[in-house]
Structure formats: structure tokens, C-alpha cells
Amino acid sequence: MTDLTPPTTSNFIRTIIDEDNATGKYDGFVHTRFPPEPNGYLHIGHAKSINLNYGLAQDYGGLFNLRFDDTNPEKEEQEYIDAIMEDVRWLGADWDGRLYHASDYFGQLYDWAEQLIKAGKAYVDDLSADEIREYRGTLTEPGKNSPYRERTVEENLDLFRRMRAGEFDEGSRVLRAKIDMASPFIVLRDPVMYRILHAEHPRTGNAWHIYPTYDWAHGQSDSIESITHSICTLEFENNRRLYDWFQEALGIRRSQQIEFARLNLTYTVMSKRKMIRLVKDGYVNGWDDPRFWTIRGLRRRGYTPEAIRLFTDMIGVSKANSLVDYQMLEHAVREDLNVRTSRVMAVLEPLKVVIENYPKGKEDSFDVPSFPQDKSREESRLIPFSREIYIERDDFMEEPIKGYNRLAPGVEVRLMNAYFITCTAVVKDSAGRIVELRATYDPATRGGQSPDGRKVKGTIHWVSAEHALPAEVRLYDRLFIKPNPEEGGEDFIENLNPDSLKVVDAMLEPSLATAVPGDKFQFMRVGYFCVDLDSTADRLVFNRTVSLKDTWAKGK
Predict the structure, then answer these.
(1) CATH code 2.40.240.10 region(s) in the chain
(2) Residue 37 among the catalytic residues
(3) Which residue from 40, 97, 99, 394 has the highest number of Cβ atoms inside 10 Å of its Cβ?
(4) From 25, 121, 144, 262, the catalytic residue
(5) Which residues contact 522 (CB under 8 A, 6 or more apart)?
(6) Whether 349 is catalytic
């Protein structure tokens, strides 16, 4: 049986932590966190961060926090908070009661802001957002000071307190850190710390009329929680200078920000704005659409936490941005499901075969192992057999091409675990479409073995027509037709795959009648499938998780 436990791999973050521990920094302790903004659903990129942060805490015997950076009440909803908690748990990360919110620290953040004002390191600015942007300068030109930059400490404190009390209109004033408008690093050109928002917060209600920016709240929240290693993606690399400046200016406990490359996956778009467009404009059927790379979508499709952890371990952690082939993710899913799933027979495009020399009314059954890939498991199930069966339409060819080794007129094949049969006739409708086959079987080949040692080239799967279980099967493919949907600057919507979902009426072996949503199987010779949430007592619905073909592994 394959061991799917991801190995502990070395990377530059572990090297930093090892060096910190060797020098006694943070007293040899590791405390990480996952800090999502509760304004959307998690996707596969977030899973990489969760597995990294939680894995480091586990491997070094440290702690892991879940903290919602809920600093923008206009975009945050309880729905997202609940979904994020569920997804993090499903991935296997345990915050062990350490659930926090940036809003828990609004009082402390406010006090620290006043501390900076009193130290002459923050001021209230009356410039508009557009004017602040204009004054900030460019990469090649320094910014210029706001005309309000030299307000007295007393005036700044008075205005800031009145901002908090709700005296001013939204957009009329902000609090900015007073750093250096000529800094070569734009992030240090007097960044905004607070803005006025007369909005109700999901947790603090109407208690506040000013809300901290992400940059102001983030590092200080890390300090409050005693986070040792603040691990984030590369887009925050420039912000590290501001992260460090705030903690140093306040004289508070220091945390170390470390950046790694975010996950960029082919055939996806990771922008939250673009994912929201896909949902709101109906290009996908909600955030849990199995074509989506959200955690909820992957889960519904049949992906497992173990497969996602295997994938994130495979791609590793680096400082360089790169585009990861989606096939690597599918390979990890196959590796995981190959171990855990039972084998069953399912016919997705049924073609009836009448075995004419099999006695009418007779029934047979075969005891078939459910986990043939794992010899240590003894589970099996009885598969019924009768005169009429279904096979896959693709498993018959009236005029077979060279190399075709399945059923054809006059050709003998093996019915998996059953008998040898030979096609004797083809029945067509008035349009010339094949609607039925006639065949004979060799009763001496019970179990799919020939007593005389003769060989057949083809083995095909089947289900008994009399006992078949009808089901809806949804064949999902990638949502986009191009590896990079945004290539060439075109609207990514133009690259949607019109064939990303195909629905077929399938026939399954009857053992699947007791399957429930979330159950996973390998449909032999077809792929891996999962029972969908839309299933009812009267009709099962299956999602194709991934096909059997693994082109990525073959190319390695």
C-alpha cells in the first residue's frame, strides 16, 4: 500500500527557523497563524498557506492561530467567516481554541495610534484619496509632503478623537504614519493607518467610525498574539519595511515577516475579484461548483485533504513565482484516491448486449474484491449477472481499426470477472444507429478465466441490465481552455471552456445503491468519482473527480 504521508521537506523558511532556534531567537519557539480576510471563500492557494503555516507549527512543536483580519466592515460577512472556519478544519488544521479577530484589538490599535501621534510619528490628513495618490509620487519621482503634515500633536489628537466620535464625513480625513515622503520605497511614504467609515461591523456593531487599514492592523495583531514567524506571499514583500517600522516605532514585541511565492495554477484565475465575477455572472454554479478551485468546490468534486497536502508538499516552497501545472494537482488526487477508493463498475454510455445462449430468467453472481489494489483488504461484494447487460458504447466498434482490442463482430472479449463473450449480431434503428448487440458466452469461462488457456486481447466492464442502478453522472473538465486564461491581455471570460460540464445518464452496479454524498469510488477503466450533494433517495448523482489517465506522471 502506498504511503501518502508527505515528507518533511527542507525549504528556505525552515532554514530561517532553524537558524532562529539555533541562536535562541524567540526562545526557540515557533508560533504561526493563518490570517484570512472574511470577504470571500478560500481557494487552493489559501490551502498552500494553511498547510505551510500549520505544518511548521506542528513540526516544530509550536502553536497555530486562526485570525480573521476583519478591518473592512463593508465587505465582510458571517457567511464567509463560517465557511473559512469549516474549510480550515476540513484541511486538517487545528487552531486549538486560538481563534482571533483583528477587531478584538481595535481598542489597542487605537491606543497605539495615539502613541504614534504623541511621538510625532502620525498625523491627520485632509487630502482626498486622489490627492494622496497624486502626492505619493512614482517609482522614479519622490512624493511631496501633505500641507497638513506639520499639524501639532494637540491638533492631531483632537481631530483623531473627533474622527473616532463620528464627527466627520467618510473620505474627509485619514490618519497617516509620518515616515518619509522621499523614501525610495513607496510603502513608506506616509501610509494611511485609519479611514473614516460609518459602517456597522459584524462583531463591533456601530462602536467605531474609523477602521484600521490592513497594513496598520496586521503586524500589530501578530505582535499581540506573539506570532514569531509571520509567513505571507510575495506581494507583501515591500510591505515588510512598513511591518517592521510600525513594530519598531511602537517598541512592541517583534515578529518576523517571511514571504514565499503564492500558488499560480494553470487553467485558473486566483484573483478574488475575478472569481467573484465568475460566481455573480453565473459562469459557475456558486462557490462550491466542482469546476471551481475553491476549497468547497474541490471538496464537492471529491478531492481529499490528504491529496491537497500531498500536492502542496510536491510543489514545495520557494521565493520565485512560477506557474504550476494543474496536472500535478490531479496526479496527487489520483495517488490518494488510488489507495482509499473501492473499485466498482459503471457504464456511462450504455449499449445493451443480449447474450442469446444464456438462459432466460437465469441469474448468476460473482464475488468480486472491492480493493484489488490492496491485497491486505478482504472486502468484496456480489455482482449480479443476467442475460442482458450494458457495456460502454466505446467498447464496441463495428469496423475495428488496427490495434482495437475490444468488442467487434466475431471478436471474443472478457467481461471483467464474469465470462468470455463473442459478438454475433448488430441491431440498428431506422437512422442507422447501433441500439443493441447480440452475443454468445462461453459458460466454461466463469470468472473470466479460460480452462483451455486461450487468450483474449480485450477485457471490458459491464453491468447487469436487470439489476443496473440508474444515476446521473456529471463529467467535469477544466473551466478554461487555455493554461493561462489571461494570456495576451484578453478578457479571461473569452477563454471559458464550453465543454467544462457534460451530464450523462449512466448505469451502475447495484452495490452503489447505499452510497451517500461524499463517498468516493473508482469506476473501473473510467476514473474516480464522488457522490454529489444533489443526490436524493430516488436518484444518485456522481461527480467525476479525476480521470484515470495521468499524463503528468508519465512525462516525468
Answers:
(1) 272-342+471-554, 344-466
(2) yes
(3) 40
(4) 262
(5) 337, 338, 341, 342, 343, 344, 528, 529, 548
(6) no
What pLDDT was estimated at residue 7?
A: 45
Choose the catalytic residue: 161, 241, 253, 272. 272
Please provide the average confidence, as pLDDT, over all residues in the chain.
Answer: 95
Give Cα 176 distance to the centre of its chain.
Answer: 37
* Per-position DSSP letters for 173-196, written without gaps between them: -EEEE-S-TT-SSGGGSS-EEEEE
Question: Cell numbers of 233, please?
Answer: 506571499
Per the annotation, the verdict on 379 as an active-site residue is no
For the stretch 393-445, pLDDT in tens is: 999 999 999 999 999 999 999 999 999 999 999 999 999 999 999 999 999 99
Grid coordinates given for 201: 461591523
Please name which of 164, 224, 235 lies closest in space to residue 193, comparing C-alpha atoms: 164
Chosen CATH of 272-342+471-554 out of 3.20.20.70, 3.40.50.1820, 2.40.240.10, 2.60.260.20: 2.40.240.10
pLDDT in tens, 346-373: 999 999 999 999 999 999 999 999 999 9
The predicted pLDDT at position 352 comes to 98
Q: How high is the pLDDT of residue 549?
A: 85
CA 113 to each of CA 102, 129, 176, 484: distance values in angstroms, whole numbers, following the listed order: 15, 20, 10, 43
478-520 residue pLDDT tens: 999 999 999 877 799 999 999 999 999 999 999 999 999 999 9
DSSP 8-state secondary structure symbol assigned to residue 432: S
pLDDT of the residue at 553: 63
Answer yes or no: are the C-beta atoms of 489 and 446 closer than 8 Å: no
Query: What is the full DSSP assignment across 62-109?
Result: -EEEEEE----TTT--HHHHHHHHHHHHHTT---TT-EEEGGGGHHHH
Q: Which fold has domain 344-466?
A: Ribosomal Protein L25; Chain P (2.40.240)
